[in-house]
Amino acid sequence: MLTALACGAVVFPGLFYSFRKILKSTFTHWSDADVVSVSERLVSAIHASLATAAGVRVVTSCSDVMTDSHWMVNGFAVFGAPYMAHDIYAMYLSHFHNQRVRGQISEHSGHSLQTVKAFLVKDWMLILHHLTLLLIFMPITLFLRRGLGDFFIGCMFTTEFSTPFVSIGKILIQLGLDNTRLHRLNGIVVLLSFFTCRILIFPFMYWMYGRQFGIPLHRVPFHLPLHCNVGNLVILAPQIYWFILLLKKAKRLYLRQKRGRGDGNKDGPKTS
Fold first, then answer.
1. What pLDDT was estimated at residue 272?
2. pLDDT tens track for 73-108
């Protein structure tokens, strides 16, 4: 356990530091805000890919959804814990440099309680999400399950499947490729993967439990302890909220591009 924790504490900050150095020397015209933002996204994509791979491995290895176990569940929970703490720091750093770019912080001023407070207000839901995983989900996974339910923890790992595509979308915008077919295609993948792996995964878990014990899907919640259903609702609620935000953003981009095409047709080539 300590080895996995130490590896995570080295790997994720090390990747962040390395990406910042590489991007700073490669894209010399980028600001510190650009470099930090893309570096954060790259590390996030790597963590999410590892989590998804671990989750798929666990899910496909467990034939009994309650009693089968896999070493990767506890191993990755510990390995990934430092990422959650580090990502809060990386998000704050990105917020700090963005405020500098926008002129909300003087170029010569440093970090302050006001900057931290503004960050907490702006990104409170993501911070709460990370702290919940770190301070509640990880202890439950490691100490309170009595060795049961590795299959369901594996399913939770796979919810990260959409994260690399979200990160790719942000990076494409940073590279000025937000009006390309690649960005539109990635947006579709984001919506489909997010809906499948962060929302449909919950009825899938209930269905698998019911299948294991011969219970119809609609009766499964009544066969589970109340805290299990409440916990799932607590996790599901922000996923639905974020999915609605993604849909609204996709709608805005679609309407903007549609208006752009309409303006282009109006200003098309003229014949004399």
1. 36
2. 999 999 999 999 999 999 999 999 988 888 767 666
Q: Would you say residue 267 lies in a domain? A: no
Greater pLDDT, 238 or 269: 238
2: containing domain = 1-104+113-256
Distance separating alpha carbons of residues 46 and 80, to the nearest angstrom: 11
The token pair that represents 211 in the structure block: 């299948």
* 50 found inside a domain: yes
In a domain, 268, yes or no: no
Residue 158: how many other CB atoms lie within 10 Å:
22
- What is the structure's pLDDT at 107? 65
Asked, for residue 13, whether it belongs to a domain, the answer is yes
The b/e string for 103-132 (b: 16+ C-beta within 10 A; e otherwise) is eebeeeeeeeeebeebbeeebeeebebbee
Domain count for the chain = 1
15/82 Cα distance (integer angstroms): 13
The tokens describing 212, both together, are 């294991």
